[in-house]
Each structure stands twice: as structure tokens, then as C-alpha cells.
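Q: I have 279 residues here and want to know how they pack in 3D. Can you give me a structure?
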Amino acid sequence: MLGPSEALGWCRTTTMPEQPDPLVCPAGGSPVAWPYGCAALHLDPRVPSGTIPLETLRQLTGAAMERWASAVCDPLRGTHPGFRLQLLGDLAAPLGYFEGGVNASTVSIPSRWVRDAFHAPDAAALTVVTFASDNADILDTDVELNVRGPDNPRGVSFTLDLAGPNRTDLQTTLSHELGHVQGLAHSAEESAVMWSLVRQNDQRRTPTEDDARGLCAVYPPTGVSTCDPGLRGLSFHGKGVGCHAAPAGPVSGRGAWALALLGLACLRARRVRARRVSG
């Protein structure tokens, strides 16, 4: 199933993931997904001073993971997606996937927002998903948060709990980005976590029925109770997809802020050492 069912707006990320219209699912390609029932993320402990305390980031990331894991597939049976994200120990790891190297999926706050073709200068966050081109298995994911700080004055002002003017809700952003980590694209349902816009004072932290239907389509309920989140030696074949979130100012006078845009980048070389898979 590549797209939404009738009256639902969820979409899956595919190996042809361009989604120029967030109301229309990506056309063509194979849907990407983690090949096992779980995946592990680590927090990069190199959190710049004056931004977000590491322990706060840990609590909010873990809470967002639990909200996705608690999504209900079948209300009558009380079933949940056959997949969950796990937050393991802190790890300072390079961003991206490196064939033959030590790889780890991470959530990080860079000291400065990189200025390149893949990082919009006003982006709130960027999620990079690396997948194998032969079977569309997700190999690695990395989430970067563009947090305003002493060395990053053009970053985004996040609010940790209470909404405020010209502020982006961090929990909403984390929930949205973790949806991309799990293989979801944007939803056409305005109330969904995966909706592509977030308004001022908007909080969409908990997956809606639309979000749950999407995740349950990617990972149907199973009886698996345990899972080893290791990469298990998966091989990289040179393609990737990225998503970034950007508060871009009011939209149509409704006080809306752009949350996420999806793009695609391909690598020509099999071996990735210093180049980023992003978009």
C-alpha cells in the first residue's frame, strides 16, 4: 500500500519520494521501511550550551517515541503497530551512513546550522533517511534540530511546553520528524502529526487516527515482543531521502508556519565517507 485509503490523508515515503504537493502522495517507487520490528536512536551528547539541556531532549524524544508506539491500529482489538523506536545510550556519531563503518541513527543539535544546498537557512529540523536501493530497507536515520543558540543566532526559537508567538513547539517537531524516521511522508489531513504545516501556538504531538493508519500500514500488528535494534550488517547501495522542517512565516493570513518539506538526493558512489545524503 503506497498511499492513503479513502477519506484518509496519510502517505508513505518511497524510493521516489518527491512530494511537491503535500496533499498528494509521492508517485512511484517502492515504499521504504525498517526491515525489523524496531530501530534504535541515540542522542548526540554534544549539545551546545545555551540551547536545550540534554536531559530535556532525552525526555521529549522518549515521550514522542512512546506516543507513536501507543498508536492504535484496531480499536476493537486494541492492537498497535508492529514496530517501535528505542532510545539507547548517548553517542557522538557522524551524520549519515558509512558503508563498512560504525553507524548509528541519531538526534542531534549542531552548534551551527550547515549552509549548503540541503539545509534551508530557516529550517527548524532536518531528517535524513538512508535506504538500500535494491529492497528499500531503511539503513540509517539522522535528525538535526536547528536550535537558536549563542553560536547559531539564526536558529529557531523552540518552546518546550507552552506555546508562544513566533515560536515552534519542539514536541510537535520531534513527533513529526520521528514519523519520517519510521517511513511516513506528509499527510493531507490537517489535524495529523504528519500534516506539513504548523500554526503559531499549534501543538500536534500525539498521532491521530490518520497517523496511526499510516504507521499500521507500514508495520502491521504482530506478536513480536522483543527486537534487537542493531543494523545487522545491512549494505548500502547509494540512495537516500531527506526531510526538513522549516517555519517559513504566515501562510494565507492564517498564522500558519511551514513544518516540513520532503526531498530526494542520490549518491553516485557506493562508499560514503564525507558526503551527506540529504534533501
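Q: Anything worth noting?
A: Helices lie at 54-69, 170-181, 209-218. The radius of gyration is 17 Å.
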